[in-house]
């Protein structure tokens, strides 16, 4: 019986090719988009799950709060790991990571820069599962000065994996390390990645007051997590408050597998995403699919009158309603299976583009070929049954006698239902257009906003060689000898990479005393050329002058710092910068206030900033070169040559400052591009539905159009007559979409410290786009019908 | 086989009330061939729909083989219909997506007949109506006469006790029309009861008895045999 159903269904679809093509194509594109999003989501949800102990591993993060501020950071203090393991038997193991192990790696004449290198405890590879290609995971990091490389790093340094084992490499040209293992490259679905892991130095002995290490642990039983969390305040009391910590401090256990989508604290090891983003993607996938399913429902129910006689005959000769429902469900399942096959081809074809847009390396056969095919077919059947149920019940419900006479009636409820669905489709479409437009405007805003300094034409690179840092003045002068170099400056930390460290300071109050409450601020070491090179405005006071020896005891602050302290006049105020060797507080005086400028990307608010002169040559690690606009390639070549004269070994790897900032918006850019892609797909599918409806409506009204033409109706009048109904629905959709889009996008923009405001013209443009596209779609059929020969239409009747 | 008594059927719209059947009573015996005639709108088709259990009367009694079916629900009517009644329509009403064989096979499928038996019975009936050579063609590839032969084959394949024919020759030329009438006569002679609605005096003469209707009730009955 089922075979018969499918055979009949297939013939029916072939006989009505136009509608079948509309249904299959729309569904295929929607399903392709759906698969791609699902693969994306599956990949996001798979982060860190490849570790054998993933369900038992946790990360420890810190939350601090006091009157002057608060912090939420990944950093924990060094002794915590051992103390936790000692105090809590439910913890099987703990391991610490120190992210400051990167730098220049040298083997023979080969020098590579690698910043993604960690120091780690010796049990790192028994906690985390990284397959060893050479060496032993349990002993690789036992001895100090051991290093385990990834396959890629091993091949870069030694040519092959096998050649790497037991070789000696040097860090910063002076620290020898023996290669004791090679592991597979870190999978992309990891919340942190590395190219090498080094054992901690023999003299590594961190204290309780430095919160910069990453601490992970393994529970003996995954269910112990919640109970352990409850015990941590006691741990803090025992080890931290007892040592004089005078802020409210909490430790939080984060399950390893939830870090990527649920953690957003300071100093994350990679670009985490938000679960909100995953929900948005899933909703978009379902909306696209629903737009295509609505097409099927609308076209099938609209065409009911064509199927009436068949339905009646089947009923007359004995078919029950169940048989008819099965038949119509078979049709919808046939369509979804056809669409699924096509969607697999489309998804495969679009995969490279999607991967590029989303920054992923997704594979179509991610779940395995058999599982994928089974899942696709099952999904097609479920989708076909779900989407086909309403049309099946609707069509099978006609009474045979009026159906035999083609007396279907006007079906006002069904017509209203169809109209509602069209409105729903276009509401989704308009919301997606508005969303795309807002994302685009926000991206444009972020990349074009005045950052408080001139980020253009600034080339930046690291100075790894100590000798070069010591000769920074000569290096600067050599560069300035060329007229294409406008300015050169040095700083301790790079800006635009979102990783300047925050510090806490005790500041002088208006009455001259030092406030015992700490003020949290970024700290940045800059030389005297930094302010003019970056074209930062001085609001008050003066810039550093390195010729004045006393300037080493002076500071610049930004306007946000002054605002936070509430000073009326900042010049001359003191800030305590730690203590000297004898334990005496070191107070430095403010000599200038700059305007606020962004050191982090625009997702972050401008925070108070304290600038000081580098304490020594070693703090001049980042070089900023402002270049003229002429012949950039030759200029960078020149800078490279000068660099090589001062540092014969380190690779000259430079970036443009504006691109550094832009890199921080990659996630939003990817979101924007993916959203644009899916918006285009949604518009296309919604228009296919409109095309289907208007094609059918026009065909049904051929006689009416003929008579109207004979009676003198104009072509334009007929186009208006045929299009008005559907265009009205698009207008209703616009009205509904505006508040929905406003709410959704306002929420999205809420994540940005600096954001555009949603303007009325965005809705006008989005509505205009939807209206014009709908109008053009309708005009294909309406114009054709309006210019057709009326005699032909009337004769055929 | 059929006994209807004081049958009434009224169609109502918001403004108009149309009496289709008005106090109609008659009987059809098993093995009879009855023609129902009358002008358009006299209630012939309504009567046929009620006899075929496609529609229900507003009042009166309808005994089918001694069972009161006037108040049957849709499911019972469908069940009674597929076991006992075959239909032949003026416009053939074949399903375009199915081949000749599949069209004829359909009532057997709905009746739950096994595949092997279905094939034998469809082949037998297609032989009988001389359309076997076209068994794999689709309706649109056939002439009107051929299509009506397929429709007759479909109506009889389930061996119904009653065949209801609604102007079976209305869309056919005289030669094809005569062929179809001869087929119905043969079926009747083989024991099938036939009730036929027609406008054609010529076709009516194939029957045993003519019931003439006007404004929803019988006006005369002519016994021909």
Give an overview of the whole structure.
The complex is a heterodimer of chains A (797) and B (225). By secondary structure, chain A is an alpha+beta fold. Chain A folds into three domains: 2-43 and 275-446 and 666-796, no CATH class; 57-262, no CATH class; 466-648, no CATH class. Helices cover 49% and strands 18% of the residues of chain A. In chain A, a hairpin with a 2-residue loop joins strand 5 (103-107) and strand 6. In chain A, helix 2 runs antiparallel to helix 20 (666-700) and helix 8 packs antiparallel against helix 13 (412-448). The longest helix of chain A has 38 residues, at 321-358. Chain A is elongated, with a radius of gyration of 34 Å. Chain B has 225 residues and is of the alpha/beta class. Chain B has a single domain (30-54, 75-223), classed as Rossmann fold (3-Layer(aba) Sandwich), CATH 3.40.50. Chain B is built from seven helices and ten strands. In chain B, a hairpin with a 4-residue loop joins strand 1 and strand 2. In chain B, helix 3 (100-110) packs parallel to helix 5, helix 4 (115-128) crosses helix 5 (144-156) and helix 5 runs parallel beside helix 6 (174-189). Chain B is globular, with a radius of gyration of 17 Å. The model of chain B has no long low-confidence stretch (mean pLDDT 89).
Summarize the structure.
The complex is a heterodimer of chains A (797) and B (225). With 797 residues, chain A is an alpha+beta fold. Chain A contains 24 helices and 25 strands.
Descriptors:
heterodimer; A: 797 residues; alpha+beta; six-stranded mixed barrel; 25 strands; 49% helix; B: 225 residues; Rossmann fold; four-stranded antiparallel sheet; 7 helices; transmembrane (chain A); membrane (chain A); Macrolide_Exporter_MacB (chain A)
Cross-sheet strand order for the largest sheet of chain B: 6-7-8-3-9-10
Classify the beta-strand content of chain A into a percent band: 15-25%
Shape of chain B: globular
Q: Helix segment count of chain A? A: 24
CATH top-level class of chain B: Alpha Beta
Beta-strand content estimate of chain B = 25-35%
Instruction: Determine the structural class of chain A based on helices, strands and strand pairing.
Output: alpha+beta
Percent helix of chain B, as a range, is 25-40%
Number of domains of chain B: 1
Structural class of chain B: alpha/beta
Task: Give the strand tally of chain A.
Answer: 25
- Indicate the percent of residues in helices of chain A: 40-55%
What is the H/E order of chain B?
EEEHEEHEHHHEHEHEE
**From the structure provided, what is the oligomeric state, counting identical versus distinct chains?**
heterodimer
């Amino acid at each position: 019986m089922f075979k018969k159903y499918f055979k009949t269904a297939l013939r029916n679809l072939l006989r009505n090719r136009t509608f079948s093509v509309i249904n299959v194509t729309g569904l295929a594109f929607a399903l392709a988009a759906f698969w791609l999003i699902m693969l994306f989501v599956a990949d996001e949800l798979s982060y860190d799950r490849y570790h054998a102990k993933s369900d038992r591993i946790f990360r420890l993060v810190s939350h601090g709060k006091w009157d002057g501020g608060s912090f939420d950071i990944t950093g924990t203090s060094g002794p915590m790991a051992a103390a936790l393991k000692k105090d809590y038997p439910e913890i099987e193991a703990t391991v610490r990571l120190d992210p400051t192990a990167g730098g220049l790696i040298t083997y023979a004449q080969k020098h590579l820069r690698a910043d993604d290198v960690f120091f780690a405890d010796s049990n790192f590879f028994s906690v985390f599962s990284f397959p060893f290609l050479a060496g032993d995971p349990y002993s690789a990091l036992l001895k100090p000065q051991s290093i385990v490389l990834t396959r890629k790093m091993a091949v870069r340094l030694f040519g092959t994996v096998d050649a790497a084992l037991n070789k000696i490499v040097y860090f910063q040209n002076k620290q020898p390390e023996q290669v004791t293992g090679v592991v597979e490259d870190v999978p992309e679905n990891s919340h942190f990645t590395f190219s090498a892991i080094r054992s901690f130095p023999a003299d590594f002995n961190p204290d309780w007051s430095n919160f910069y290490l990453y601490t992970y642990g393994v529970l003996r039983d995954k269910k112990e997590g919640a109970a352990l969390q409850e015990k941590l305040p006691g741990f803090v009391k025992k080890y931290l408050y007892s040592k004089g910590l005078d802020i409210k401090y909490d430790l939080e256990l984060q399950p390893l597998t939830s870090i990527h989508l649920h953690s957003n604290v300071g100093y994350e090891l990679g670009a985490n995403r938000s679960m909100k983003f995953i929900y948005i993607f899933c909703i978009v996938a379902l909306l696209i699919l629903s737009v295509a399913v609505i097409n099927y429902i609308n076209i099938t129910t609209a065409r009911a009158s064509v199927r009436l006689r068949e339905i009646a005959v089947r009923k007359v000769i004995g078919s029950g309603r169940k048989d008819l429902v099965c038949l119509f469900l078979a049709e919808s399942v046939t369509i979804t299976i056809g669409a699924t096959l096509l969607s697999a081809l489309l998804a495969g074809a679009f995969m490279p583009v999607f991967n590029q847009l989303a920054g992923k390396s997704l594979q179509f056969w991610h779940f395995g070929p058999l599982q994928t095919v089974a899942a696709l077919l099952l999904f097609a059947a479920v989708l076909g049954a779900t989407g086909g149920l309403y049309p099946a019940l609707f069509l099978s419900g006609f009474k045979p006698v009026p159906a035999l006479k083609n007396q279907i009636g006007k079906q006002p409820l069904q017509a209203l239902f169809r109209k509602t669905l069209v409105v729903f489709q276009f509401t989704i479409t308009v919301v997606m257009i508005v969303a795309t437009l807002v994302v685009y405007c926000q991206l444009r805003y972020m990349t074009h906003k005045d950052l408080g300094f001139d980020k253009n034409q600034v080339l930046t690179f690291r100075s790894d060689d100590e000798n070069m840092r010591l000769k920074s003045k000569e290096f600067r002068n050599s560069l300035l000898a060329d007229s294409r170099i406008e300015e050169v400056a040095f700083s301790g930390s790079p800006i635009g990479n979102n990783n300047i460290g925050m510090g806490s300071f005790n500041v002088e109050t208006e009455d001259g005393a030092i406030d015992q409450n700490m003020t949290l601020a970024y700290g940045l070491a800059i030389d005297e050329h930094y302010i003019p090179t970056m074209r930062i405005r001085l609001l008050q006071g003066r810039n550093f002058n390195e010729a004045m020896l006393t300037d080493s005891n002076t500071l610049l602050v930004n306007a946000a710092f002054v605002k936070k302290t509430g000073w009326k006049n900042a010049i001359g105020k003191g800030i305590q910068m730690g203590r000297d060797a004898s334990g005496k507080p070191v107070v430095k005086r403010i000599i200038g206030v700059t305007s606020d400028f962004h050191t982090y990307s625009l997702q972050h608010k401008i925070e108070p900033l304290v600038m000081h002169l580098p304490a020594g040559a070693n703090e001049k690690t980042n070089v900023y070169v402002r270049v003229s606009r002429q012949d950039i390639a030759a200029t960078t070549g020149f800078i490279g040559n000068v660099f090589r004269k001062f540092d014969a070994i380190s690779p000259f790897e430079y970036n443009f400052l504006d691109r550094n900032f832009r890199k921080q918006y990659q996630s939003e850019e990817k979101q924007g591009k993916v959203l644009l892609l899916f918006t285009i797909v949604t518009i296309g599918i919604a228009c296919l539905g409109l095309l289907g409806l208007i094609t059918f409506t026009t065909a049904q009204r051929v006689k009416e159009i003929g008579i109207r033409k004979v009676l003198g109706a104009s072509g334009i009048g007929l186009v208006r007559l045929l299009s008005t109904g559907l265009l009205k629905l698009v207008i209703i959709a616009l009205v509904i979409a505006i508040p929905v889009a406003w709410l959704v996008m306002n929420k999205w923009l809420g994540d940005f410290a600096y954001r555009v405001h949603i303007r009325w013209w965005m809705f006008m443009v989005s509505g205009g786009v939807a209206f014009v596209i709908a109008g053009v779609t309708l005009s294909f059929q309406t114009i054709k019908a309006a210019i057709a020969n009326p005699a032909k239409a009337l004769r055929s009747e | 086989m059929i006994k209807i008594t004081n049958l009434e059927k009224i169609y109502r719209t918001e403004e108009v009330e149309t009496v289709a059947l008005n106090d109609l009573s008659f009987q059809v015996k098993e093995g009879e061939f009855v023609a129902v005639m009358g002008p358009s709108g006299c209630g012939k088709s309504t009567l046929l729909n009620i006899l075929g259990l496609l529609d229900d009367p507003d009042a009166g009694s309808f005994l089918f083989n001694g069972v009161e079916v006037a108040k049957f629900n849709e499911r019972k009517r469908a069940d009674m219909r597929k076991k006992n009644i075959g239909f032949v329509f003026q416009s053939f009403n074949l399903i375009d997506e199915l081949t000749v064989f599949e069209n004829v096979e359909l009532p057997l499928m709905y009746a739950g007949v096994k595949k092997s038996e279905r094939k034998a019975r469809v082949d037998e009936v297609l032989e009988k109506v001389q359309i076997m050579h076209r068994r794999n063609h689709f309706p649109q590839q056939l002439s009107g006469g051929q299509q009506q032969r397929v429709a007759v084959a479909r109506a009889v394949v389930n061996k119904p006790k009653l065949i209801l024919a609604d102007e079976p020759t209305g869309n056919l030329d005289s030669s094809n029309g005569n062929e179809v009438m001869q087929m119905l006569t043969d079926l009747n002679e083989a024991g099938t009861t036939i009730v036929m609605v027609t406008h054609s005096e010529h076709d009516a003469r194939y029957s045993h008895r003519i019931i003439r209707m006007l404004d929803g009730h019988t006006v005369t009955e002519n016994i021909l045999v």
